[in-house]
Amino acid sequence: MTSQPDFFWSYLPYWAVSYGFALTGWTCVGRFLMTAFLPPDHPNYIFRFFKLLTNWAVWLTDWITPRFINLRFLPLVTAFWAFALRYVAHFIFAANGMAPSLMQAAS
Predict the structure, then answer these.
(1) Which of 97, 65, 78 is nearest to 31 (CA)?
(2) Which one of 13, 20, 66, 92 has the fewest beta carbons within 10 angstroms of its own beta carbon?
(3) Is 13 left (phi over 0), alpha (psi -120 to 50) or beta?
(4) Rounded to an integer, what distance in angstroms lies between the CA atom of residue 90 and that of residue 6?
């Protein structure tokens, strides 16, 4: 098995964008699930961290989301957009040769 020492560093923009969208999406899912048990102003440190980490994305989603969507479901809508943008970003990186491929990892 050949080792590729630059596998991470040569694709650093890809990993940063992919993990950034994944972190935002999964944190929004966690934020939504915590709202089922906690009120919006609860001092729980995990809930406050989730809100701190995702407020910017939820605000952007609120700006483009129709008003008939209940505000309670806005973190789920944000998670959907984060995962969709991650999917689109992967294909943009792959089309430009900036994403790792399975054939490269197998050789």
Answers:
(1) 78
(2) 66
(3) alpha
(4) 19
Distance CA 22, CA 3 (A): 27
Can you give the chain as a three-state secondary structure string? CCCCCCHHHHCHHHHHHHHHHHHHHHHHHHHHHHHCCCCCCCCCHHHHHHHHHHHHHHHHHHHHCCCCCCHHHHHHHHHHHHHHHHHHHHHHHHHCCCCCCHHHHHC
State the pTM of this model: 0.85
Structural contact between residues 27 and 52, judged by C-beta atoms closer than 8 angstroms: no
Nearest of 57, 38, 60 to residue 48 by alpha carbon: 38
Cα pseudo-dihedral 2, 5, 6, 12, rounded to 10: 110
